[in-house]
Design a protein that fits this description.
Elements (H helix, E strand, L loop, with lengths): L11 H10 L2 H8 L12 H15 L7 H7 L1 H8 L10 H13 L1 H19 L5 E11 L27 E10 L4 E9 L8 H12 L5 E3 L7 H9 L3 E5 L6 H10 L9 E2 L11 E4 L2 E4 L14 H6 L5 E3 L6
Parallel strand pairs: 1-4, 4-5
Antiparallel strand pairs: 1-2, 2-3, 5-9, 6-8, 7-8
């Protein structure tokens, strides 16, 4: 009779359950070609699922440690997945093959993100009215070459948000769905590039994942470049970006407040729970429209109230197309 063994379960069964519900291994096996004929055992999708569990469980992405981790939880992993897992199924060279297949062809990674996103939207009936995109930089302690330059690739010297210009960095972009913040799109880019060119491709990828372009695309002021806004508008998109207060923008906004180019419109509220914070509400075509009461404190310095009220709206650049 074999000696009994004790294996820690912790959150491993829960991670496996949710990753299988997301159909991670099914989608990866559908996108990637099968492993080399000499590679027996787990498929790429199955190996990827176990690798994600390993990374989350140990908070460690080193490939060389996964083979030992599989041995420590071998019985638990087989019982939870129903797969036959061999000792050499998770060596670092097999993981390297998996990452190479996913990473060398960017279209495969984009297709995987789209399929995962569509599955989540459909399975949980997620709202698709608003999406957000933002970027940030990550500094790394990676040695440059002898001339102090970065090697070719994503790592480069650039504007550091960590106030460490002496460190190499890369940039990561993330697109999510409101209000739950469900990730739909991510992209890793070089650390020395500008953010401006990243927003339109991100919007296009998110549009493909969501399945339509009739969502409000929200981003920071770096997305408000005229070229970016023009491209999104030309492709029937709707956006909300704060205008950067640079150049002639402050003068233009000041002139618009003093002499509005168009007639002021009612502010339509979409969330009833915010009504208690507003001075007065009226009904307009079945929607809640904000109406300023006559008792509004005089903060306009003698200006016409209609013009002054427009100055309290956010200085944001709206797409020209109306939301449905």
């Amino acid at each position: 009779m074999p000696n009994p063994t004790i294996e820690r379960a912790d959150e491993i069964p829960l991670l496996i359950y949710w990753l299988q519900k997301m159909q991670v291994e099914v989608m990866i096996d559908r996108i990637l070609p099968p492993p080399h004929g000499n590679r027996q055992g787990l498929s790429y999708g199955q190996l990827a699922l176990l690798f994600v569990v390993y990374v989350i469980y140990l908070r460690n992405h080193r490939l060389c440690g996964m083979e030992e981790w599989i041995g420590q939880h071998h019985g638990l992993l087989q019982q939870q997945t129903g797969w036959i897992i061999q000792g050499k199924d998770a060596t670092d060279d097999r993981l390297g093959d998996l990452l190479r297949e996913l990473g060398e062809d960017e279209s495969r990674g984009e297709r995987l993100q789209q399929e995962l996103g569509r599955h989540l939207i459909q399975a949980y009936q997620l709202p698709t009215a608003r999406g957000r995109y933002d970027t940030t930089s990550f500094s790394v302690h990676h040695a440059p070459d002898e001339q102090g330059r970065a090697a070719q690739g994503w790592l480069a010297f650039g504007h550091s948000k960590d106030h460490r210009p002496d460190l190499l960095q890369f940039k990561q972009g993330l697109g999510t769905l409101d209000p739950a913040g469900v990730p739909l799109y991510t992209a890793t880019v070089a650390g020395n590039g500008a953010d401006d060119p990243l927003y339109v491709p991100a919007w296009r990828q998110m549009s493909q994942t969501i399945g339509h372009r009739h969502f409000l695309f929200i981003a920071d002021s770096k997305a408000a470049a005229l070229l970016s806004r023009g491209q999104i508008d030309a492709e029937k998109g709707t956006y909300l970006f704060p205008l950067p207060m640079t150049g002639k923008t402050p003068e233009v906004l000041r002139a618009w407040v003093r002499q509005p180019p168009v007639e002021a419109e009612a502010i339509i509220l979409s969330n009833p729970k915010h009504e208690k914070y507003l001075p007065k509400l009226g009904k307009s075509n079945g929607l809640r429209a904000l109406q300023w009461p006559s008792s509004l404190p005089d903060r306009c310095g003698g200006q016409n109230r209609t013009k002054c009220r427009q100055s309290v709206s956010p200085m944001s650049s709206w797409g020209s197309r109306q939301l449905a």
